[in-house]
């Protein structure tokens, strides 16, 4: 029985059209594959152009980390804060970042942290963690090892930090500066004043009951500052005292400036933060249900800070397991490692 000639013709036509479509499709994907092979995975010239488009590299780093109203979170790290030694199970940076995971409403804030690395190892670690990173170059000074509290290298590093933060203000950015020995257990922006006439809100080692009292023992390990002419002038005058303050760290110099009336002189509004919310090892928060941050202050070495910070995070985790309506009032475990750090020989991280 012979096939219908019309059916045979239709079949041949379909086969021909299908072959043409396959050929065109193969040619298209072959060309795309060739183009893909020729296109570099990382275009350095594009990156350079992007940097130039937004100013210097600091401009780009700040813009990338910024939240609304040009506000960033800044922390400064060196090798001693990011690299484990042989006997360590963790690092200061690990504990700092863990607090954002364990805190209430803090996880998204990690995207707005700019980690400023003062040595290459710290920068490499930051990039490995896929965070917002900035490499702070300092000619002729090695900041990679642990800088013991009040040593000459410690004082130099604190002044370099102040100089860098002045540059951030000049770039028009507000920022929270935080040491990496500060654990973020709740979102500080929920408690910090939103009044834009308040220029500086700064933590203290001990709260004296009045947020405007200028004799508070300030702590420059955590503060929120708005960029304006007044705060830029403050930081300029502060950094300008660097060479006239032998034996003093930058925190002491700022305290002296406040005591000498610089707040009134510059027309600043400065709020001193209550340790009920912004606490530390010097003065624990009285209330787990109110605490925002916990700073491992009044402590002399990184090893001691790490040990007591891990214990405090364990206290926090135990609190979080309590029922919402629990009447239990938990207490912080004594910061024994930090207390002992003042009287025992120190083991220094390289």
Automatic annotation (TrEMBL):
Keyword tags: Membrane, Transmembrane, Transmembrane helix
Domain of life: Eukaryota
Record-linked InterPro entries: At1g28695/At4g15970-like, Nucl-diP-sugar_transferase
Record field: transmembrane: 6-29
Domain Nucleotide-diphospho-sugar transferase: 109-309
Pfam family, one: Nucleotid_trans
Keyword Electron transport: no
Signal peptide range in chain numbering: none
Keyword Methyltransferase listed: no
PANTHER family listed in its UniProt record: EXPRESSED PROTEIN-RELATED (PTHR46038), OS03G0731800 PROTEIN (PTHR46038:SF12)
The protein, known as: Nucleotide-diphospho-sugar transferase domain-containing protein
